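Lab notebook, page 48
Experiment: co-folding of the full assembly
Goal: obtain a model of how the components sit together before planning crosslinking
Operator: M.T.
Materials (sequences as entered):
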Amino acid sequence: MFRICIVGCVWLLGAFSGAAFNRALAETPAQRGDYLVNTIMACGNCHSPRDATGKMIAEKAFSGGLTFDTPAFVATAPNITQDKETGIGSWSDAEIKRALVEGIRPDHGHFAGVALAAIMPANFYKALTPEDLTAVVAYLRTVKPIRNEVTDPVYKAPVRRDPYPAAEAGFTKAMFAEPVGRGAYLVTIGHCMECHTAWSRGVSDFKGGLGRGGRVFPAPDGTPGATAANITSDPKAGIGAWSDAEVGNAITHGVSRDGHALKPPMAYKYYAALKVTDLADIIAYLRTVPPLQ
Ligand code: HEC
Ligand code: HEC
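Observation: model returned without errors.
Model output:
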């Protein structure tokens, strides 16, 4: 009896050691998707409704959010809950993936096959690994259905998405083996540089102005809002002279080095839940962004 137990226990230990044990502890795709959507990808920053004070309405998360009124289009971030009629509950996994990485709606239903306005960051999500893309969809399937129809978009010009060089090039396995590569991936799928890159007449200058900032985001009441900061490694204009702790504090707590509280749309409330290791990788990558003034 005793011997059987020993044999059995050793076998159990063996089964749960090494790779098997790691797998047992590893996240499910839906858990990984939950982490991505609610931290670095901050989908709710656009897709979730807010109350009059600008606070997110948690119980209505993902049921439709901000309206973007630009010279090229007026579009409201739609309901992406699992509601079959007003959300994406009747879309197949492949259709959701296509919307995320190509920015094209399904070939059936409302606005069939029509490209989504460029504000939906598909040109950045293009970089998602197949596993992470599957994980995001797995999580979206767990979002409880809420009935809410948003106003239809109006397109005034053809949709033009500025290609983001890192997403076009893609990420290889070797890049995930070192902090700068992992950080570059997170900064890409977090579309940080969409806001933080020099921007003129609706065109992002990813080649000449990566990280330089300067883009102005009007506040919802029409008053001048926030200007995206220079986050290049320049020691004066950028964050080159900041300590890792200072950069981390800005990203996750919304406090700049000079102590001012960062205004929206900087999504630090989402980034607050980033894993310590992911934050360190993001900072490692930002250190490599060429200095610009
Ligand atoms: C910067 C704001 C923004 C962010 C961040 C964002 N979206 Fe969107 N998304 C939009 C807007 C606006 C539209 C609608 C565009 C249009 O109508 O042309 C849209 C459209 C969509 C659609 C198509 C829905 C439909 O009914 O046509 C899906 C699906 C979607 N987004 C999912 C996501 C997911 C998942 C994330 C996070 C991984 C995300 N979005 C992040 C703004 C955003
Ligand atoms: C939707 C637009 C948007 C996105 C996405 C965004 N930011 Fe920001 N960020 C801003 C704006 C606007 C400010 C300036 C806010 C202010 O000064 O009130 C800012 C400020 C910052 C600052 C503080 C710099 C300083 O000088 O005070 C850092 C660091 C930063 N962002 C890093 C990031 C990183 C890293 C990401 C991606 C994980 C990111 N941001 C994503 C808009 C954005």
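Interpretation: The beta strands are 67-69, 73-76, 154-155, 199-200, 203-204, 216-217, 226-227.
Next step: discuss with group before ordering constructs.
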